[in-house]
């Protein structure tokens, strides 16, 4: 991978001298490559228009009652040769962004939706609170923008914020037209809730299961579309890229069918990355098990620009199993989320002595943005030596609590806790990546033919901290905005049927034998826990330079030790297995987070460091990381060599 990207068409253009951080390395000063530290502020969108130029002229929780098959029906223009599939569009991810995009581009070509597990298993399906949109006459786009920018610690891009806040309401109406059912008030209008950081009631919701309802509606539409094929249990391994002069071009993706271990290659004219976040770099996360940073890592290895990875949002209120009357018998794969809307509806945070503490930290108290609330809880836990705090909504009418939060009430009651009578034990957990693959206003990246939407993308909307319920709105808006440029690119592109032979194929490690393979898997699971422990201990809610530096060192040593173990046991660089590839991606994302955190010498939003405890106006700039040829580890390079066209 190239350390810097040469000037030329479709590449990164920036005249001003700027600072960059060699991936996982030290800061240097150089032109044409970027990182936090630019002396002259550059507007995100105007910068993006220069930086992310794409040349188009030359080239069951969600109960959807259907029998999912990898191939449904016959698609005339969809072709297959052995283990290679050819599509106009490849969509990696089956959450709100991927499905909404697929439904639109399917009007113009064949679409493969590639999903790691069951189609409904996505971050979208676990989203409780709702979608933020200006739908009340007393609210305004300007007010929503201001709330977003304040929550984002003034690192948000104003043009991106305006786009999402302006186009969001129409995207909600489209969902309703598709059959999504949201809560209505007694007056027949949509019931709009309020959450932390919002100055108005603007959260459209379906009780406390909004994401599940949206996923249901979208999947039902996908089932009916003859131009869309859903490939479930297909794990995306690496993007297929070539170098065309100074351009990097995406031609599709290699995947592995995790049920058959078959490697399946998808060749496509356009690829949308909508694979979600990387919550499982931490030991406790509200994300589903599939959120292992696969898309971010693949994009980084493919030389896509990555931005703002230091801003990891810890949701303040995940259910603390330690405080339940009856402890769950098994360890959860992901923490159970207690939605922001509980505090928006009047929930109060107490320590274990039933002392309300949020007013001591912020005048907005429980309605402060998530970063403030999470740090406040973290401070209480450390000062008092306790494992959790309490969130109490029991002072509200029982009927209202049960109607607004039926899912939370049912989950807590399973373990002997009645939320209408007792406070809920809560603790912060990793929840959302505000950083990701750098995207322009149409979801374009610096890799030609590759678009991004959803949590995997960094659009500039969230800045240093995401405002509650803005994520689903962003996913809807950017999935829709990526449609037309994708169609334009598709129309001037052709499928080269010889392309499938351009890259060597990954192989399943069957030659290792079951005994060796089981040892590798067992060791990989141990390493995963070690990495998660390092990230929580040294790269958590409150950070320091010394602890980040130690994390960087320990992660590098752990990765080298793990890779050495693999290769000593016969593993080869082209071998792929689910556990090993996930581990590869977790290492990649963890290093991106640490590297970005070390580069930001201030405390802003979700990134708080005791060595630089204040906001510095001169550093109000995004952090950007490019790939580097120095990244020789398995997690940081593609399995295949980049092809030259």
Automatic annotation (TrEMBL):
One Pfam family in the UniProt entry: Succ_DH_flav_C
Enzyme Commission number: 1.4.3.16
Enzyme class: oxidoreductase
Annotated FAD-dependent oxidoreductase 2 FAD-binding domain residues: 88-472
Family: Belongs to the FAD-dependent oxidoreductase 2 family. NadB subfamily.
Keywords associated with the record: FAD, Flavoprotein, Oxidoreductase, Pyridine nucleotide biosynthesis
Domain called Fumarate reductase/succinate dehydrogenase flavoprotein-like C-terminal: residue spans: 528-617
Designated name of the protein: L-aspartate oxidase
Function: Catalyzes the oxidation of L-aspartate to iminoaspartate.
Catalyses which reaction(s): L-aspartate + O2 = iminosuccinate + H2O2
Organism taxonomic ancestry: Eukaryota, Viridiplantae, Streptophyta, Embryophyta, Tracheophyta
Superkingdom field: Eukaryota
Required cofactor names: FAD
InterPro entries for the chain: FAD-dep_OxRdtase_2_FAD-bd (IPR003953), FAD/NAD-bd_sf (IPR036188), Fum_R/Succ_DH_flav-like_C_sf (IPR037099), Fum_Rdtase/Succ_DH_flav-like_C (IPR015939), NadB (IPR005288), Succ_DH/fumarate_Rdtase_cat_sf (IPR027477)
Organism: Datura stramonium
Signal peptide: none
Pathway assignment: Cofactor biosynthesis; NAD(+) biosynthesis; iminoaspartate from L-aspartate (oxidase route): step 1/1
Subcellular location, record wording: Plastid, Chloroplast
